[in-house]
Every structure is written in C-alpha cells, then in structure tokens.
Amino acid sequence: MTAVVQAEGLTKYYGRRRGLEDLTLEIQPGEIFGYLGPNGAGKTTTLRLLLDVIRPTRGTVRVLGADPRDSSVRARIGYLPGELALEGRERARDYLRFLGQVRGGVPESRIHELAERFDADLSVQMRKLSKGNKQKVGLIQAFMHEPEFLILDEPTGGLDPLVQHEFLALVREVRKSGRTVLMSSHVLAEVESVSDRVGIVRSGRLVAVEDVAALREKAVRRVELHFDAPVPRAAFESLPGVRDLRVEGASVHCTIDGRPDALIKAAARFTVVHMVSAEPDLEEIFLTYYSDEERHHDRQESA
Prior knowledge:
Elements: E1 5-14, E2 17-27, E3 32-36, H1 43-50, E4 58-63, H2 71-74, E5 77-80, H3 92-102, H4 108-117, H5 131-143, E6 149-153, H6 161-176, E7 180-185, H7 188-194, E8 197-202, E9 205-211, H8 212-217, E10 220-227, E11 242-248, E12 251-257, H9 261-267, E13 272-277, H10 282-302
Parallel strand pairs: 3-7, 3-8, 5-6, 6-7
Antiparallel strand pairs: 1-2, 1-4, 8-9, 10-12, 10-13, 11-12
C-alpha cells in the first residue's frame, strides 16, 4: 500500500533560521503517528509543509500518494492548526454548516453528534468562544467530513480532562476504521496512549522514530520509596538503570532509565510503606535522543 506520507530530505529555512532539516519519513495507512518535540522544535513547520501552506527550501514530499499542491488532496485531509483563528459574529453552528457544504456536504446530524461528544455549545458567536470551546469547534471541523488523513497540531490544548478522554477515544475509532492520524504534541502521555509509532523532533531535526514500546523502554522516571525502617544505601547502589541515588534513613530517591525491575526487586527485600513514581520526564527523553544523534553524527564525521 502507498504510504500516506512520504518525505525525503524535506527542509525548510526561514532566511538563515532553520525550521526543519532533512526530514525523511514514511507514515503508513491506518497508523497513528505521534510527533513529539518541545515548542519550536519544527513540528508545526512539518505539518504546514505537508499541507502546502508553506513550500520547502529543498526535498520532496507526497501526501496520500500525490503532490500536496494538488487541490484534490486537501479535501481528503482533516486539519486542526495549533493556533485556531475563529472570529466574527456568526455562530459556531453556522460556521460548521458552511464548512460542511464546502466539503461536499456533511450531514447536520454528524456535526451534532460530535458537538455532543465534545460537549460543545454551537449557539455561541465565534468571537465569544472561550479557548477551550474554540478548540472543540476546531476538532469538530477536522473530524466531521471523516477524512482519510487527520493532521492535528497540539489537539488537546485548552480541553478539560473529560473532553481529552473523548478526543482520544475518537482517534482510536479513526484508526479502527483504517484511516490515518498524524498528531503533534509536547505531551508524552496523550501521544503514548494512542500512537503506534512516535517521531521525536528537536531543533528542526528528526532524531528518532520509535514504536511506543521502545519509547517506554527509554522513559525516564523519578521514583521515591519510603520504608518502615532505615535501609542501607548498598542495597540500591549499582542497580541497572538507577541513577541520582539518594538514601536518607527510611527513604530512597532516584531516577530510573527504562524498566524499574531491578529497583522493585531490591525494594522487595524491605517493607515498603509508600511509593511515588513521577510521569516520565519528556525533556530528558528528548535530551537522550538528541545526545545519541549528536554522537552518531560525530562518529560519521570522524570516520
């Protein structure tokens, strides 16, 4: 099957400033591809290149088997921009009806169904919508015509947890139907929960593409263990994946790279009364991948 996205050497410079450099990537049909990176890493530049909002400095890209400049491709895509400009006096429902007509006719029942799922009030004038409600309208317009390919830029910004949960459920339904999603984010948890593969971009360069299981292997977590009595430091020293170890009486603080198996086995020799495990530190994952990529380039240059 033809890849939904085929990019080779895709590069974009804004004057002397690098937006994206040498992106080579394929996204397959029916795949949810998470695109992770800090703000300013090049995520939005990538999405705009795929949509032909901007043109590349060099390199090639095909979307749904065609040149992004082909206007027929755009009708097959649903897009949620990172910054959604919704102004004017018209009500949200009228705006969505208009878009539905432009896209060849979207049943009003479909718009209402999505509005209910996202708890969106479409009777409000767009200029009066809150940030969260603007995001809901943006999601409705992206999903409502059931596109083959969804491109979502920071889709959960401004949404409350219940609506975020509903959004992720809808993304899973899209995958089940055989359609494709590219979702950019700086939030690891939401991308990890639905994606098949994840690309990590930093400073305009794609530094890794991993399946989600491999990403979890490299996750960095901070852990606290509290025991019913003081424990010896020697019991936790030199454990695989454990670093930044601090033992203070009956408490152990450390950072774990990857699986916590060795730490859990060591802790099981004592009586654990409380354990705290922080969410994986995404910035540390970025730094790990970025450092690995830099070392790879250094080896290539010295070879």
